[in-house]
Amino acid sequence: MKKLLTVLTTAALMTSQVYAAGTSAMNASAINTDSEQSQSTQSTASPISSEQVQQWVYTAQDKRQSDQARANALRQLAPYPSQNSLVAVVRGLQDDNAIVREAAVIAAEPYQFANRWRMLAPLLTDPSQQVRVTATTNLIRDFGNMSPAQQGTIETAYQELVVFLSAQANVSSTTFDTVPEMPSDIVRGADSVNPDSLNLKSALLLADVYRWHQEWDKAQVLYDSLITAEPNNAQVWLSLSDNLRAQGKDKQALEALDKAIERQPKEANLYYSKSLTLVRLEQKIKAADAIEIAAKMAETNSYFWYLNGVLQESVNIDKSVKSFEQAYLISGAPEQLYAVCDIYVRTKNDKTEACLDELGKIAPDYVIAELKTKAKGQVASN
Question: Model-level pTM?
């Protein structure tokens, strides 16, 4: 079970990074205009050519372009991390114009936390409040991974972000003076916040910020209010379940996800989250069923198909093999070709040699040697 959780957690992190890259502008742009948010999120709607990405890299660094054009190019780069994109981000973070610096913060989203901290920590005291709160939003989601020194460094900026978002969300500063103990009910009822008065986008971001900062009860109050206001909003339910899971309340998280699925039965991310929750509850067969639904609904999400391969292996080996194959067909990613070859080796598939030959074109020799040794072991075990 620990090994399975490690595999799923790693894959979930990969998925969350992709998701974060696609929605970083949404989270940061809850403090921006709707038009900026639309421009940022639309960039992930369809596959983008490497030539287009390179054009954005060039535009972002071209001082002859307007500040707005360079900022827009940086926001477009958020889902496409690369060495060239990183150069554009670093230069953007040092730009004289606050609009460009803020856009560079958004473009920094997909990079590893250690790198983002080095790049963005200086902006926690930027002269522009907009830049400060955007940088804080970017970093605070990794609060649990921060060292005590880093947590101390970000605390003042965090408090500023809370005040900023509370004003935008129309949440009173006295709302959390006395947060009642949470009963066992999933949705307690929003008696501390008037759902009708909330700015929903800002309130959801504020709730997430509280969750990332590990203030679970404050987050819960807002999630309850948001569910009252928007009971069909899948993202609110997903965040609520994350808040419960973070406290080790996996059974309650599962109940929340089931309620969400009743309202949004065609939302693949709900089934994905349910699958991971079921794994934590050691209900592997049900977890496999849930991730299979998610993969089929999402169709082209290679990570869902990969996870389906992992979970189906102990349930239905044929489904497992086909899922790994489908994941690779969708993404063409080397790590997913490796997963295909690995399952071929372990199931003594007739296509093993062909797969290893293909993997050998891109993988180090020792990787192929390890798989071939494993294959010989499978033959010897017969």
Answer: 0.81
